[in-house]
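Human: I would love a firmer grasp of how sequence relates to backbone shape in proteins. Take your time, and here it is.
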Amino acid sequence: MADITRRLGWRHLRGAPTAHIRHHRSGTLVHDGPGLSFWFRSLTAALSEVPVDDRELAMTFHARTADFQDVAVQATVTYRVSDPAVAAARLDFSIDPDTGAWRGAPLEQLGTLLTETAQQHALDVLARTPLAEALVDGVTSVRERVAAGLAAEPRLPDTGIEIVAVRVVALRPEPEVERALRTPAREQIQQEADRATYERRAVAVERERTIAENELASKIELARREEQLVDQRGTNARREAEENAAADKVRAEAEATRTVRLARAEAEAAREVGEARAQAQAAWLRVHADVDVSTLHALTGTRLAENLPRIDNLTVSPDVLTGLLAKLGASE
């Protein structure tokens, strides 16, 4: 919308760079171009403002496929006014000289023209396309057909309109049909998910089984090694006992040999001592064989006296002395 200000019966218009202004005064074109700024009188001026920027028109309409299924088409058409003079002549782009607002609704008229034209070509394509095919390839085919149809539409160049781009956003069936179409895919996806879950569980079970087998094998190996250890310990204990027994036997044999040798030595010594004593006794007897009896008695008394305990004091009473003398006299 143009910016218009008032000054003492005059009006000043300041347009935007994207708006083409056409100013007629008394039927004569005075100003023509985008982004203009000028003074004018409202009583003699006829103003038109034509937007020349790219504009997008969003449209949604319903169509029926070849198998009588309703679908909703969402599309966007980008257009621009390529010839503002022609557009201002064919559509009402006039503005109020006091407010700068459009007197009519030219963009709505232009949107209706584009929507009806695009809808006509889209319906023509979808009417010969089944629903399943339309949902798969319908977006591309509808876009191409609508773009070709708008480019070939003679009313648009005659109105000064140029189509920049056509985009088809989506083709959607009715909610019930969409749910019905989604069900097999969802079931297949669910089956794939269940299969993946089962496979993961199977892999997990297999891994757990492998782990359990490894643990069991480890336990068996440990038990086998413990058995070997017990056997080795028994062998070592038996070997140690045998070695101890052998050592004890050796020690016993050595001790017995030593004892026997000692006994033999003692017996030999005793025998030699006995023989020496016997020889000494024999010699003593041979020496005393020719000695008289009184001498032997004296020697015997002497020997006996040598073996008696030491007597420091000896008291002889008259009775003892008398008895001894009597025995001595009797013996003589």
Summary: The radius of gyration is 74 Å. The chain has a mean pLDDT of 85. The longest strand covers residues 161-173.
